[in-house]
Design brief:
65 residues, Phosphorylase Kinase, domain 1, three-stranded antiparallel β-sheet, 3 strands, 26% strand
């Protein structure tokens, strides 16, 4: 386990059965993960199953951007 604070972006629970929404959510995660810039958050991981999709990103504290 890495001992670091992260933020987790979750899908809208009312959209988990909407395949277009899930596809867009996954596409967004892939696109963001390709970016590498100090002003853009880093995608650390993605996860998902039939009930939930999530993007794990670096936690940015207030007033640090």
């Amino acid at each position: 386990m890495l001992s670091r604070e992260v933020a987790v972006v979750l899908t809208d629970p009312f959209q988990v059965t909407n395949s277009d929404h899930i596809s867009l959510f996954r596409k967004e995660a892939k696109l963001i993960s390709r970016l590498n810039h100090p002003s853009i958050i880093t995608v650390l991981d993605t996860t998902g199953d039939e009930d939930l999709e999530a993007i794990v990103i670096e936690l940015v504290k207030e007033n640090t951007v």
